[in-house]
Amino acid sequence: MQASPAQKRDAANSIFSALSAVAKTTEGDDQVQEKTGTKRKEPEPEEDVPMGLLPVEEEPLDWQVRLRKLTHASSALAPMTLDTVFKWIKEAVEDPDAALSRDVIRKGVAELQRRVSKGEPVSEALFRSKHDLINKLKESGLADLAEEVDIAMRASQLAKGFARNVQQACLDGQTMESMDHYVKTVVRGCDRKGWMMRRVFIHHLSQVAARSLKAGDQDAADKAEQSLIDFGTVGGWPYIISWLKETPDPAKWPSAEVLDQLGTCLPSRSPAQLFAALYAILSSPKLGCTPKSLVRIEKILARNVSQAFNLSTVEHSMPLIKEIAASGPIISARFKTVLKLLAVAMEVREASGNLQSETWQKLLGKIQDLRAAVDVKTSKGWQQLTMSEVDFVEELKAVAERSLKMAMENEEVLRQKQELVQHGQVQERLEQCRLAVLAVANEDGLKEKTKAGLKICLIKMKNLHEAMQKVEVPSPFCTEAWNIGRAAIQDFSESDLRCCKAFQWLREKNLGFCVRLLDSCGLLEQLHLIRESPQKLDKVGLPYRCCQLLLATAEKDALSKDTFAPKLEEVPAGWEQNTSRHLNLQYFQKEGQMQWEWPLPVNLVPWRNDGGVDGSTSEQWQQQDEDHAIPEAKHFAPDPSSSVTALDDCPYKEGSRCLLCLEDFDDEHESSSMHGQHMKFWKQITDRMAMLCLDLEKLPQDGYRQMGLASAWRGELWQALRVSPAPPKSVLAPFWQRVVLRHLAPADSTSKNDRETAAGLQALLKEALKAARGAGNESQETSQEKAEKDISAAVASLDKRVSGLTNISITPAVAALKDLRLTVISSSLYSSDTRSDILDHALKALRQAEAAIEQFCSQPAFHVVVQSWLEEKRLESCLPLLSHRGVLTAIAKGEAVKADAAHGLPTHFSETLSEAWHSEGALRLLRPRRSPPDDWELVFSRSVGLFYYCHKTIDGRAQWPYPALAENETKGSLAKVPNILDEWTRGKPVAGNALYAEIASKGEPICLLCKGQGLEHFASAGHSENIAIWSSIQSRLSEVEHGLNVQLTLVTSASSLTSFEMAALTKAWLHEIQHTTLEPADSDDARKQQVSRVFWHLLLAPWSQKATQLVQVQQELNRALTMAGLQEPKWSELEWQARVPPQPHVDFPWPRVSKLKLPQSTPSEVYDALSAQALKSEGITAKADGTLWCTYCDKAVKQLSAHLNRIFPEAMQHIENGIAVKAVVAKLKSEGHQMRCEGLVLSKRRFHCSLCNTSGNWKWICDHRSAPSHRDAYNVFLQSSSPAAAQVQINNKKFKEAELVAWKKAMAMDQAMDKD
């Protein structure tokens, strides 16, 4: 029954009076009671309750029974009433002497609290008697229990007021004016009295929040919502927040439903701390459930926290976020990243005026770490927070990056200012160091090529390196100086080793005596340069033979920089190799000593003696060679005390003794045969020295001094004197000691001739020559007039022979050259102290003839190089024409080529050649080959002064021109192209149609283009692709034909062309036609190679070898292109017939039904004795040569028992193959006639597919038929609209029945043979 207004008014007054008393503070005790919530009002006088109003029930009188019932009251089926509990407590208080009275009191108070906390109503009678009970409890010393009873009764009284909707008690019954009083009385009273009353108020608060969202009564909802707002305005929410932050006994907490309802219905404008506290409780595992309001609370908290992500207000938001994060462990863990983010944001804000890049780099690192820490995989409620975190991180990142950029720009400005201050000093220092390096090194290496010079350069380089480190980007001039210095150090450190290797290489070529001369010209270290730049030897002063031999050998050995380069594996043992950090160059250490020079390998001879000059080892080796060859030469050394004039008359005579014969010199001895023989050798070596002196005339007489010049020519003279026929040692020794060494000894300071100059050396050699000839009979010398006459005649003969040199006239020309040389050296004019005009004219003619002969002989060598270049460009066929028109001669001489030199050649020939023989073209860079072919050797003629070529055979034939001439003249014929048509099955061509389409004897069409058979093939995709290749060749040849027509018109109108030129042009055009046709054959595409070769042999090869006239080539090419454009036959007009099925045992094996049934224990003799019929049952037949062949395994049978007895692996494989063969044959029986319609045929135990243009073993026909490639090709064929495809469909329909009958007949016939 609903209470009357009067009753409600009385209840409200009693509640407010009780709560007001609770809310009052007492002096000195207010603060403590505020914390504990134990303030209570004075007990009211207990009113007597009429006994008739109390319920009557049978009660146990035993305290033990009552204690047991109170203890188990929560689980009792029929719980006692609150009045009974209250009565038992009161009676226990009144009987304090009872043993269990206090236990009954405590259990009773606990039960009272439990029942009240669950919302069980308390009767008015109990409310009126509570004061009496409380007072008795206090008197009994149980003040704590009295307090608990008081709070429980007050909580029940408050809940009753809330349940009756008493306006003064309910939150939504308050106005803005009464709300402050309400908070100070009701809320504050609940705050003081603990969780019993707090729980009641929180339950009421959740109901008010629920009413604010209740639909249907908008006025009540608005009133409830406004009351919640006013409640927060007057400071009510802090009480609720403080309650929720406490951790009371879960039994005293409001129920999960109440808290969930509160979290669901509270206005979102409520304090975030309230939602945080609710979230901490609702997410606690102690509740044992998952409230539905968690997602809403998460969203509200996320929205509130997201507002804190603002750099301008982050300091003010930080306390709130910390307070929210401190609400509980779960929310604290979730807000850990938020707090770090806000902390970093505060650092960013504090560093806003900081212009140090290091600070911003650290902050940027922290921001990036935070971005990685943000968990994007979060619950639905926190998604907005996560997104806000990501956005705020990006915002902080942008701010940090922008600030970092500004800081770096500011630092850069400061750095630039500092650099501007120091720039002048740094640049000045850098320039000084650069100039210092260039002062000691240049592109040629160290200026002072000594260890002291190296040490100075290293110091300068170190200073330059330190100066360059002080600038970010050194200038190109500094880099260039650095590279020059580094290269100079590297060259010096490798110089000694390179020179030693070069010396060793020269010694192997018998040119070791040229070392000092090459070194003085700076070529010994860089000997490889002469290969690409032979002109570097022009002014060195080497003897002609040595110079040409050096160039030829360098070319043959492919001399390069790496030939003499140091190698780490050659470093001797004991040396430690290290790398300089600054220079990145190797240096070496041994026993604590460091050096930059590469140590010499053990087997390498030093090129200088200890303490000697560079190249001195070569002179020592030369001296040892001389001493070894003529050990007795020292005995013939002149007496140092004797004067020079004492030896002028007869150098081989000493006193009255002949040094040649070692006998007394008298008239009888002089006329003796032995002395005469020795004098012939003496004259021979004298003439050789004269020839060498004549060769020395080639050197420029400019007085330029070359160290090692005398050493080189002395070594060459030593080589010349010892060539075959070599003189006896008795003649060579006195000549070398008393003639050569006497004049070519180291120069005396008093001598007027310097042997290290060409003029001085020539004067010394002439003095030696005069001394050698002074021993001759004066009557043998010709007169001056006769000498001039002889020289003039020899010059005239030479001029006549040299003009218009050919392969035939070259030998007489060389003979005339030799005659002039001998005439000059034997004349008195040459050994005279004065030079005559006739002698100068003869020497000039001699040089011109030598140059002409040398040029003529080197032309084939140049042709070889040009031939290689033309072959590379596919222009080799035009070499004879270019040679005939003087193009090669003009290029060799460096002259301009005639404008019409390429007249008549194909267009791309002319374009390529015109570009190549331009002033800087490829042909201008070519040089004649100097090294002879492998089967030839280069031999020097001392009498002629030139090289000739000798074949390395028994006959030893020799020739003056380069030996490749005859070989090059035979080149230029058309290349042989393999004729693949000879290996293919051919038929008869169809007149008036494409040549590649032929008809076989059985009426089947054959495609020579694809090596395919069958009408289906002509409708296949592969055939179409080959037709496209055929057409492309035809198109390219049409362009060639057009160019040929144009050139033929020009050539015909020009009457100046010789028959040789016409023949050469014919050959060139044939080569162009062949190259154009076979151009795809050079690729890796086998299809293009096949089509191009078929095109060549069908249309071009038959006449290409026979065509000798350019007009004939033009006519034949025109006819070939006309035939190439012919169409394939009109298939509908041909006569067709049913296809013949394959024959068993011929086109494929036929397995027999019967087979051998022999046990495994059968001896091998039984297998060897099997009949032919028995072997056929296993697929084994005998060949014509008597060998056995297994058609199942496709191999020869060596031993029948091993092939048929199952105990052998070979026999098991035979069984498997037999099963496979039978499966294929069974497939052929049922589907064989259909395979033929798909382009598959069997012939001679191989299958052929006309659609795929492939073939293979007959057993693979079924696998090929089911392959995806064949199915695709067949589908393309079915969709083809070509005439061949249409005719195939017509033939299939026309001959379907006949072919099926023939197929079945063939199979049935063979089955009958099987039964036999």
UniProtKB/TrEMBL annotation:
Record region (Disordered): 22-51
Compositional bias segments (type: Basic and acidic residues): 32-43
Domain of life: Eukaryota
Protein name according to UniProt: GrpE protein homolog
